[in-house]
Each structure stands twice: as structure tokens, then as C-alpha cells.
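hey so u asked for the seq, here:
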Amino acid sequence: MKDKKTKIPRRNIEEGMKSLGKLVRVLECFSTDDRALSLSDICARTGYPRSTAHRLMASLREVGFLDQDRERDAYRLGLKLFELGSVALSNLDIHREAYPFVEALERMTGNTVTVAIFDGFRAVVVRRSGGTSETGAKPDQIENAPAHCTSVGKATLAFQPGDVVERLIARGLERFTETTITDGDVLRAELAEIRERGYSVDEGEHRPGLRCIGAPIRNQHGRVFAGLSISGPSWQLHKESVPELSKVVIYHADRISRALGYTA
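ran it, C-alpha cells below
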């Protein structure tokens, strides 16, 4: 007689999903700017009662997703997340396929080259060439960058459905520098121009004195899901050279798209 499969009650599944959502919300409180947070910080950001937040953080610490500095009563993201992230990154086709084109573009232009995937709100870097401190593009500063004020982010955002753009605008356009676009109408106009010309420009909108040029990357179905960019200090990457350099960036972005199976 065959064993019957045990059916998990729907209520248990729903409760499990809610618990998982709460754990993820705790992890999302951390960023490159907020590397260490206290229990009070987590409570303030999530709205969870102290007892609930403590229980969730204890569970995350037990599996290695959080580390605790007991002397400072502070928590940091654990190395287990780095291990899992490294595995996920190495499994991405774009991470592998983009490598030769990133290296070639860096040699050709002398600028830092970045490839980032759009996650719905931000540009998540999956590959970058070795840059110098002159560019300001340090790995721990741009691994997760806003889409509305970086060239690699805008190059991707410009080709997303309207509801995606509106959701990002409704969330708020954070100001980072004097040139950051914080007005929804201005951003919509900027994105329309990017679609028309095929490339984006960041004029120190995320980091002062940094100029960047970006172009979209498409998957095998033709959907723009990532972007490629070059970046350098404005005194080195001159504004007059943007139109010509944009052709080089677009060409390499197209090469990456074709390596991923895009054939149009």
C-alpha cells in the first residue's frame, strides 16, 4: 500500500509565508550606508514590537544570516549571505557572458565598466572592471545603486513598463547631489530621451564629479533587464566626448545581449 502524501494545511503555509516575509524585511533594513544596526533600529524601521524583532533576529543569527557584536549591541549581515550571494552571482549567465566585453570596453576607453541588473527599484551590480579611487566607484559604494540617478540604472529604467516607472517615482526620488533628478515629470522626460537616443548619461547625479554613460542590455526575449556603463571623473571623461563614447558603450551592450541569446 502506497504512503499517502501529507497535505500541509493552508493556514500553516500562509503563516510560514508571513514569517518568511518578516525575516526578509529585517534583512532589507541593512545597506551599504547602514552596515550595523541595533535592535532598536530594526524595530524603528520595521515597526515590529521589540519581542518580535528580537525573535526574528535571533533566528537569523542562528543560521548565519546575521552576526552580532555583543560589545556594541549591534547586528551586521552574516557571511552566510555572502556565500549564498556569491553562488547566485556565479550562476547568472550575464555575469559569465559579460566578462570579455567588460574587459574589452575598459581597455578601449580607460574607464571603469559596470554591469548591473534592474531589480524593480535599484541597479544591482553583477560585474565591474577594476577601477581606481579617482572614479569614486568603489565596490562597497555602488553594489546596489538607485536607478533614477545612475547611468546604468536609467539605461534600464527607460525601457521598463510605465507602471514600473510610476511605482519607482511614487516611492520617492532620493537626492544625492545637486544634479540628482527628484521630480517625476523631469525623470519621465529624461527616460523618454534615453529611449530615443539609446543611451543614458549621469552628470554627477549619484556621486559629485562623476560622469557616466550607460546603455541597455536585453535578454533572449528582447526584454531590457540590465545595463552597461562606463564611468570616470568629469575632468577625464569630457562632456564633448559623450556622443562618440556612447556608440562604443551601445555596441558592447549589444554584444552582451547577443551573447545572452538576443537575435533581433
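The chain is about 45% helix and 20% strand. The radius of gyration is 21 Å.
lmk if thats what u needed
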